[in-house]
Amino acid sequence: MDDFLIYLGLGFDHITDPSGYDHILFVVALCAVYTIRQWRQVLILVTAFTIGHSVTLALATLQLIHYETALIELLIPITILITAIINFSFQEPRSRSLTAPPTYRSGRYILALAFGLIHGMGFSNYLRSLLGREADIVKPLLAFNIGLELGQLVIVSLVLGLAFVMIDLLRRSRLRWTLVVSGLVAGMALSLIINNEYLSKLMK
Where does the chain cross the membrane (predicted)? Predict the structure, then answer.
């Protein structure tokens, strides 16, 4: 049980670690178009991302799939940039009671699922370095994944809470909130891409 809690804490710390903020940026980009009243949609969106990264996290940790780590480290900020850019097409509803149309929502769910597959491979790099030659990896894998989800929910709660303050309490434009947050995320993601060593090697 002690080992379970250790790996749970490591998973939580990994996704919430400010020094490795790429996964944080992706979750922020996913949530940037939503308000706290749309928490059900956000829950479905986060679940789609969870399914995606849980699959590849398990497969990669169990060494059932193989990939180039440097390529994944490049693809992760690309998924962040794409998600942020898609947010720029967001149209503010005429009524506060209206939400995004079903087609827009389903598209984001598919995107979260697909990009979750890439992020799962990124998570596995860290987990495999922790496991070393440990024989039983099923429990650590489960604990680490739960820790990731708890950390992810904390990030989502903070983003939606801040959106509530800005949009509902301070009466700022929802569209402006979405554009500002997405613009900041896009800029940071672009910086990660430009400074990526794998991309630099490809450009030579």
Answer: 20-36, 43-65, 71-90, 110-130, 150-170, 177-194
